[in-house]
């Protein structure tokens, strides 16, 4: 970021490629809506670009960018709270067997990936997504920052403006609930 601050455009490309996946997954898992996550994702990168001249390395870049993402999520939720309340209801599973068959038939997978393996991975991914969605928001956020962002407890505490022990407890409870929910997969 320091190189980008001084005008090195290639430095931004490096930052973007390093954090694009984890940042997008963090936003997607946190808000549960790919279109909304894409919008927030773009907003975060715009904020990075706009803040480049005033950037000061007070923490690791990952802490700084995930703090921006955290704040952008909070701003969005505050602005759209009434409309979002309905979106937290559990989504019904797709009961249409033909849709699943069409999906599997349309995939061009390597020979070692059978339709059964694809179905098993999809089911597992859905179970994990549902288990994440069932976590309280504060616990889900700490878990995603640790797993997707690769942040330490101290960095998560700084990014979420909470104490280290609170962050540690939230992560411990999140892991316990996920283990309990997914115990048959372990």
Structural write-up:
The protein has 186 residues and is mainly α. The protein is built from ten helices and no strands. It has helices spanning 2-5, 9-31, 34-50, 61-79, 81-85, 97-106, 115-134, 137-147, 153-160, 164-181. α4 packs parallel to α9. The protein is globular, with a radius of gyration of 19 Å. The model is unreliable at 85-94 (pLDDT under 50).
Annotate the secondary structure layout:
Blueprint: H1 2-5, H2 9-31, H3 34-50, H4 61-79, H5 81-85, H6 97-106, H7 115-134, H8 137-147, H9 153-160, H10 164-181
Q: What tags apply to this protein structure?
A:
single chain; 186 residues; mainly alpha; 10 helices
Q: What fraction strand?
A: under 5%
Helix-strand pattern, N to C? HHHHHHHHHH
Net shape: globular
The total of helices stands at 10
* Structural class estimated from helices and strands: mainly alpha
The major β-sheet equals: none
Helix amount, in percent? over 70%
Short description:
The protein is mostly helical.
